[in-house]
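Workshop exercise sheet. Pairs work together: one partner reads the sequence aloud, the other fills in the structure field after running the prediction. Swap roles for the next sheet.
Pair: D.N. / O.F.
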Amino acid sequence: MERTRRNLTLDYAGSYSNEIFGLSSTFSLGGQLYNDFSTGTSGFGEDFAGPGAKLLQSGAITSASEANSTVTSGGFFLQEVIGLSDRLFVTLGLRVDGHSTFGQDFGLESYPKASFSYVISDEDFYPEGLGTMKLRGAFGESGKAPGLFDAARTWS
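Structure field:
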């Protein structure tokens, strides 16, 4: 039996922040690439003719098999966080993914997100004894990569 497997992973993420007149901005971007390659062969033999070398081809009953698979996925994301007076924050983002198991007729899948947060406890009218309070809201989409052969139709 012989088997070869290779995994390749590349990741990058970066961000840039700036602030002007009480308005802060943080822009982030990144990407990922993953490749998994696997190949293997195996053979089986039995009922050999004599006590000599037991080569696969000298068995009365033989079988051999080979298996190969390659899975590749990649994606990137963009995100912008805008803050006003260090109290109100708005976030907009997008992630775009592609995967070899999506199938040939399926392109990229995008996952948007948006959120806000407001630190109400920093306002003058908020009672000091109540501690910190934030109001938050968010919307987002996510996905899960399909299995290795999910895109292969095995029935008709």
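Discussion prompt: The beta strands are 2-20, 23-48, 59-84, 88-99, 109-119, 134-140. What would you look at next?
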